[in-house]
Amino acid sequence: MPPAHRAVLRELLRREWRERYQGSLAGGAWLLLQPLLQLLVLAFVFGSLLPARVDTAGLSFPVFLALGLFPWLLFANAVSRGTTSYLDHAGLIARVPLPASLYVHARVLASVLVDGLGLLLVLLVLVLGFGLGPTPAGLAAALAGLAVLVVAALAFSRIAALLQVFVRDCAVLVGQLLGLGFFLTPVLYERAQLPAAFAGALAFNPLAAPVEAIRHGLSGHAGVPWVALGLSGLFAVLLLLGSIALQRRAGRHLEDFL
Q1: What is residue 57's three-state secondary structure?
Q2: What is the extent of the structural domain holding 52?
Q3: What is the pLDDT, as a whole number, of residue 249?
């Protein structure tokens, strides 16, 4: 990336940070409040009102849930915000001769950095407060899972943002798919507890292995799915390359539809 583009990307990241909490009473405190509130609601519903029959490997259900929920939120928030990148910056794209993909990258990276900071703080509190003992290999697995989620979020966002320009219903569809993906990803449950047919089908979900790697790695669980994680990483990279090819093919018509 040329130095001029890096400078623009840094400025876009600062702008995303300022605009995200502009006018908010709590400001940056939402970094912690939003994921914690979502965790409390889901833990209350599935832990008390509708007790989930989940083998949590010795973890309390809120901790088990947090180790799956927070990585999912990082991915879902990045994709959700990245989908409207081109439409939200239509004026700049028309006037400023820069690669349009910079606006998607800024949205996704800003979301990952903002959510990642808050989620990292919460996860550290959980890991240390509940005496979890991640090993060096477990930490490596968690970081690898996080990297796969970030690459996948960037790839999905690039494709969704481009489709949103030509089909304005795409953002609504992405929201629905993320809602479905939440339940098809082992956030509320362990995949090993599902019937064999369903567990096998969920193996095709490229987000399952990264979430499991983060949960198992941070909790000290021995069953880190390294092979599945490698396949998910390969899928994320191929999807990113596909998004670049799609951008080259359809990007030349971008300004005509904005």
Answers
A1: coil
A2: 3-257
A3: 85
pLDDT of 129 reads 74
- Rg over alpha carbons for the chain, rounded to the nearest Å, is 19
Residue 99 DSSP class: -
Task: Give the pLDDT score at 53.
Answer: 67
To the nearest 10°, report the CA torsion of 122, 124, 130, 131. 180
Residue 94 CA from chain centroid, whole number: 29
Question: 166 and 252 in contact (C-beta within 8 Å)?
Answer: no
Report pLDDT for 82: 92
pLDDT at 6: 73
- At a CB cut-off of 8 Å and minimum separation 6, what does 186 contact? 68, 202, 208, 211, 212
Token pair for residue 145? 């899972």
**What pLDDT, in 10s, does the model give residues 78-101?**
999 999 998 888 877 777 777 888
For the chain, which residues score pLDDT lower than 70?
Answer: 1-5, 20-31, 50, 52-57, 133, 222, 256-258
**How many helices (H) and strands (E) in the chain?**
12, 0
Residues in the chain: 258
Q: CB atoms < 10 A from the CB of 188, how many?
A: 18
Domain count, the chain: 1
Q: Where are the beta strands (DSSP E) in the chain?
A: none
Instruction: Return the structure tokens found at 250.
Output: 């359809």
Provide the sign of the torsion angle of the four alpha carbons 137, 111, 12, 232, taken in this order.
positive
Rounded to whole angstroms, the Cα distance separating 54 from 128 reads: 23
Q: Are 59 and 133 in contact (CB under 8 A)?
A: no
Contact 35, 126 (CB under 8 A): no
- For residue 214, give both structure tokens: 């983060």
pLDDT, position 172: 93
- 247 contact partners, CB below 8 Å, separation of at least 6: 100, 101, 158, 162
